[in-house]
Design brief:
eight-stranded mixed barrel, five-stranded antiparallel beta sheet, 22% strand, single chain, 25 helices, 51% helix, 788 residues, alpha+beta
């Protein structure tokens, strides 16, 4: 077999490829074995770290409970206050022996130290870690692993209050050999506690001999504390971690495992694989020679035929008469050519057409835009691009179905064709988004066309006898003022369209300021997610007063954001953006958790003050929200009737069926439901009644001018009468004057809130206001558990 023949080269290539593949497999097995062993070692070290932390935390909790009980004991506090050293020492010894503590001490502010006489060194005359006392005074308790004398102890410190700190109780357990042996038994690892000396590491305690551990760990680099995985050190896989401590320097712990742990089981596997690979290579060489000869024979015919197809000649057919796969391939090749010839014309047509609206698609639009831009540069003529997005199209799809949505798109496409000239181009970019190319048109004419489009779209679209209103938002970019590249013009027209949607202006021409707004909003989204995690959000509470009793019956929880760089960010700047991006879900869950926790704390303190929180349309589409609320109510032992969830009419109507499911689930928990901003939406009282609402909130737009505007007063009155007829409470928000309060009382309104009563206050200020306000006389009654 000549090496120049195709069959010999196929056989040789297959043999070499198989040999290379098998060698690669062997190398991968070897590499994977080493990696698996290292990963297993790393996982054991990380598991050991978690066990170590859990054990240390359990020890700390055990000691903390005893120390906390002792520090609160009246007799012990009296003995500390009077300096009764025998009683103090006896109490320290008794409580310490119950938990097998090795050291028990009482430290006075003047530096005196009383030793409980346990197993710890009695020669200590000064408290070993003064910073622990400061941390305990600041935090109410503190714990750390620190050296006391020549031994290492896990200490817990709690202040003795009367009511200010008069002394500090400290107890701890020794990190001796038995303690370390217990850690080793639980983790199956060598454990060493150490600290940095500035020139290296000093081992304080270890399951290994101190000299041996000090020789290996003393050479650890300082950056080992931040290593993402274990280090190979003196025959050991070493994982270094730092334990944070309250009132003491962080403690460094080294967990170690022999480096050859778990490698022996892979050696035999590699030997067997080597033998199997050698036999497989020989068999592959023989088989590839046979198969190569069968493949090369029809290749010449296939090659000649493919040359004709390459030149666009689809008329010929293959002439291979074989019953095997190559014969089937020949027949399928003929059928493929017939299909290609039939589809090629259809593909060329559909490549530039939107089949639903019969408008050009994005590809055709981009092609025409590029051509017109080139022509406009030659003629120095203006050119404008309009991007249009339909308003409320999602509502149409969700309410009437996608079939109705398709008919709306077809109707819109037909109306757009009527507005533009034959030289202009209208296309559907996708979804409910359209683009219009106006040749030889500046921004002024483009703005006029945009207004014409809005006018023709104001005419309702009839769908099976039902009238549907469709609005639009249009953005305009002009060349060359706003750019001469197709992509740049499209992007800037899109930015202007979103500005028009945001500002509700209908049509907007691109301006440079719109760029900064978009960048700022993107930054704001990531900042908002960090704000929730970093505790930058807070709740302010605005009181709600019962107009019949002139007493506070609840408060509305309003979220506030203090940005570390931008300062106070108004809710109007981030709530709407959070709703559009989906971040409102995290915000609402945080608000619900904080409001329920605070209400539960008030209730435990004898203050039965209900709390209201706001929910958006996205929240009502969240099927997990009822369970989240149920968990919060159970966790904070709060009466569900004290929680009111406020939703707007528009939020209820965006997806009525799904919103109704969520609301009914919340009502099943016993939570109250309030319709916020009532009168500004488009829901019906019948729908509200089906949802079993409890409360209507009259929008501040009517309340603010109720005194001087009789129409607003009439609207409020009718809302109150209708609400009462349906068994609902009515709340007026935005009360800013005494006269407005009197009007609401005369109209029979149930509750009110607003600046005239109080602005929204932080929790601490709200509590002080509740204790001192004339609106709250006689409210501190633990038996009052329901909101009026």
């Amino acid at each position: 077999m000549k090496l120049r023949s195709l069959s010999s080269r196929i056989a040789l290539v297959f043999a070499l490829l198989f040999a290379a593949g098998q060698a690669g497999v062997l190398l991968l097995v070897d590499t994977a074995s080493l990696r698996i062993a290292r990963e297993r070692s790393a996982e054991e070290l990380r598991t050991g770290e978690r066990v170590l932390r859990r054990l240390l935390d359990q020890n700390r909790q055990s000691v903390l409970q005893t120390v906390d009980v002792l520090a609160r004991d009246f007799a012990f506090r009296k003995a500390v206050a009077t300096g009764d050293s025998p009683t103090i020492g006896s109490a320290l010894a008794n409580h310490g022996s119950r938990i097998h503590a090795d050291v028990a001490m009482l430290a006075f502010p003047d530096g005196r130290l009383i030793d409980g006489g346990l197993h710890g060194p009695g020669t200590v005359r000064n408290f070993p870690e003064p910073d622990l006392l400061l941390a305990a005074e600041s935090l109410g308790r503190a714990s750390a692993i620190v050296p006391v004398g020549d031994r290492l102890y896990q200490l817990v410190v709690v202040p003795v209050l009367a009511p200010d700190p008069i002394a500090w109780v400290a107890m701890g357990v020794s990190a001796d050999r038995s303690f370390l042996a217990g850690l080793q038994a639980l983790t199956s690892l060598d454990v060493s506690f150490m600290r940095s000396t500035g020139h290296g590491w000093q081992v304080l305690a270890s399951t290994r001999p101190l000299v041996e551990a000090g020789d290996s760990l003393g050479r650890l680099p300082a950056e080992a504390q931040a290593a993402a995985g274990p280090l190979r050190l003196a025959g050991y896989d070493t994982f270094v971690t730092t334990l944070p401590q309250e009132g003491a320097a962080p403690l460094t712990v080294a967990l170690q495992l022999p480096a050859d742990h778990g490698m022996a089981q892979f050696e035999r596997l590699k030997s067997i694989l080597g033998l199997v690979m050698a036999v497989s290579i020989v068999a592959t060489v023989l088989g590839s020679v046979v198969m190569a000869r069968r493949i090369t024979q029809p290749l010449a015919a296939l090659s000649a035929f493919s040359e004709r197809v390459r030149d666009g000649d689809y008329s010929g057919r293959m002439q291979l008469e074989r019953s095997d796969e190559i014969g089937a391939l020949s027949k399928n090749f003929d059928h493929m050519l017939e299909g290609i010839a039939a589809r090629e014309a259809e593909i060329l047509r559909l490549a530039y057409l939107d089949t639903l609206t019969e408008l050009p698609n994005r590809t055709m639009f981009n092609s025409r835009l590029a051509q017109e831009l080139a022509d406009s540069r030659k003629d120095d003529a203006p050119l404008s691009v309009l991007i249009m997005d339909l308003d409320r199209f999602k509502l149409i799809n969700n309410t009437l179905g996608h079939g109705a949505g398709n008919k709306v798109l077809q109707a819109v496409a037909a109306r757009l064709r009527e507005v533009v000239r034959e030289s202009d181009t209208v296309c559907r970019l996708g979804g409910d988004e359209f683009a219009i190319l106006l040749v030889r048109a500046d921004a002024k004419r483009a703005l006029a066309v945009g207004r014409m489009i809005q006018t023709v779209l104001e005419e309702p679209i009839m769908l099976d006898g039902q009238s549907v209103d469709v609005g639009s938002s249009i953005g305009i970019a002009q060349s060359p003022i706003h750019g001469e590249a197709a992509g740049l013009l499209m992007r800037r027209a899109d930015i202007a369209m979103y500005a028009a949607k945001r500002e509700k202006s209908g049509v907007a021409v691109y301006e440079e300021r719109m760029e900064s707004y978009g960048a700022g909003q993107l930054s704001l989204l990531s900042d908002l997610r960090r704000a929730i995690a970093d505790g930058q959000l807070s709740l302010h509470y605005q009181p709600k007063v019962d107009l019949r009793t002139s007493q506070v019956v609840g408060a509305e929880a309003l979220v506030r954001w203090f940005h570390p760089e931008r300062g106070q960010i108004p809710p109007s700047d981030f709530i709407l953006f959070a709703e559009q991006t989906g971040a409102i879900r995290e915000v609402t869950r945080w608000v619900a958790g904080e409001a329920v926790r605070q209400c539960g704390a008030w209730l435990a303190d004898g203050l039965a003050c209900g709390v209201s929180i706001n929910a958006s349309s996205r929240d009502l589409l969240d099927r997990e929200l009822p369970q989240v609320v149920a968990d919060l109510l159970r966790r904070h032992a709060m009466d569900p009737a004290l929680l009111t969830i406020e939703v707007t009419e528009s939020a209820l109507m965006e997806d009525p069926n799904r919103a109704q499911e969520t609301v009914k689930a919340l009502k099943g928990l016993g939570v109250r439901l309030s319709i916020d901003d009532y009168g500004t939406g488009y829901s019906s009282l019948a729908y509200i009644q089906r949802l079993q609402c409890d409360e209507l909130k009259v929008d501040r737009a009517f309340v603010t001018h109720a005194v001087e505007n009789s129409r607003d007063s009439a609207i409020i009155k009718s809302t109150i009468e209708l609400g009462h007829a349906l068994g609902l409470s009515v709340v007026a928000e935005g009360v800013e004057t005494a006269e407005g309060m009197q009007v609401l009382q005369s109209l029979g309104c149930d509750m009110a809130q607003g600046y005239w009563i109080s602005r929204a206050l932080p929790q601490a200020e709200f509590r002080r206001w509740m204790d001192s306000s004339e609106w709250n006389s006689g409210r501190r009654r633990p038996d009052l558990l329901r909101v009026v």
